[in-house]
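Re: the multi-chain job from yesterday

Posting the exact lines I submitted so nobody has to dig through the queue logs.
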Amino acid sequence: MLSTIYIIAITAEAMTGALAAGRRNMDLFGVMVIAFLTALGGGTVRDIVLGHYPIGWTQHPEYIWLVLSAGLFTVLIARFMHRFGKIFLILDAFGLIAFTLIGCEVALGMGYHPTVVIMAGMTTGIAGGVLRDILCSRVPVVFRHELYASVALLVALSYLGLGELGVQHDINVLMSFALGLVIRLCAIYRGWRLPVFSYRQPID
Amino acid sequence: MLSTIYIIAITAEAMTGALAAGRRNMDLFGVMVIAFLTALGGGTVRDIVLGHYPIGWTQHPEYIWLVLSAGLFTVLIARFMHRFGKIFLILDAFGLIAFTLIGCEVALGMGYHPTVVIMAGMTTGIAGGVLRDILCSRVPVVFRHELYASVALLVALSYLGLGELGVQHDINVLMSFALGLVIRLCAIYRGWRLPVFSYRQPID
Amino acid sequence: MLSTIYIIAITAEAMTGALAAGRRNMDLFGVMVIAFLTALGGGTVRDIVLGHYPIGWTQHPEYIWLVLSAGLFTVLIARFMHRFGKIFLILDAFGLIAFTLIGCEVALGMGYHPTVVIMAGMTTGIAGGVLRDILCSRVPVVFRHELYASVALLVALSYLGLGELGVQHDINVLMSFALGLVIRLCAIYRGWRLPVFSYRQPID
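And the result, structure tokens for all chains:
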């Protein structure tokens, strides 16, 4: 199940990447790179930090082709994209949660400390979007937006906690997934967000 | 032969890095870092992603000294640089193609899938320039400029294709190199470029 | 001793990260990420480049908690921070030097060439601040500021040189530390800086 969701997720993330590249008037190649990094960059960063070689997508070239096609497809249908805004946000939420759970699983399988497992999950969930925003020269949305990273954190905590309690793996995934989805959708529709920290001293 | 071209290439790339740093009024240290990352950053990113340790330049300190010297030299002769604009672009084209071929060879030698080999070649060719542009806070030129990444792609495809056809290695390198050079020079002199994707929806 | 200073250092660096995030109006999560990367990012980059796995902080979750707490604490006391400006700069100098020495030790222990050892030390000392500035979309301060990277360079050179001369390890650390501190404080109080390279040709 996680694997089907994963495929939907990388497709959706690749599309958000392509749109961000379009906002910066990038050429087709730039669109492809940003689509690729948005979709597969989170897992790449996680694998490098954990020393988990070979990196996932190098063993699954079909994922590479999928995200590149999704980027190209986005360019073709861009004019209609605003009609799908909501569907998009929901697919993106699926992606965030699926990435987070997969990230936790990888770190757990390598025997890392629970704190590192949580960070691996969050990194997988959000680093792709951070890379996209850095390459498009803007302050990463995830650091300023409504609850997004917090959803990744809660999903990771729930997954680890339920695992500790001995909940069977598939049920654990299902429950953590549902929890994340509910919170993320509330954040979107009700505008929940973390407090912002504004500091106005001159730069020293 | 590839190794001689490689040395010319990292020198030329270090110089473009130093100039970019100068446009941002960086101090001498900043110039060195940007020169280093522009010249050797592409290979570093490739080695990290492929898990190819130890990373190339850590075993060849002479390359480190070469690119640092090139950066320093650029600062000294900066006022004359605009006279060499065209020579520069051609050296840079040599670099792009040599980096791409070397990147393909490394990935091929590690037994990666052809799709990954192509990506390794392209990464080696262009990631240095992307790092340079990120550190200088601008949208990477390679995503908006005339055919550049596309040249890396064609060179990688040619190298893999001719290899598959059983063409002898040195002839393959020569032919792929020539192909890349012709296309790159046409792109420069005729202004060939990829279509740009402009997307004007508000950021969600 | 280096280990006590290390703990002070990552705390101070986490606080500078949190303040930088505050200047960009990031939410609490953004503050945490920037605090973490500023404090532990330099060592992470060094470990990845040297292939030194597992990465330091993944084996010391207590450091993760320390820097996250420091980030949170900074948000709470931000309004009083400007009173501690000088103390802060001194703690930051301790951090820079301690990080540099630790970086040199790691690379030396892995048998790298002296040039690479120096670069590993400098990377550990300054990469955290560079990551902080990239994520906050500004040209890294270290490339434009008064002597900072140069201090890391001198500390690394001194540590390697004294080691080569057969000076006992603890005395070496102490002497290199003192040298770095004196130069850094002079740079701060007397405004010492490297010459700036300004290049005003149009971007080609």
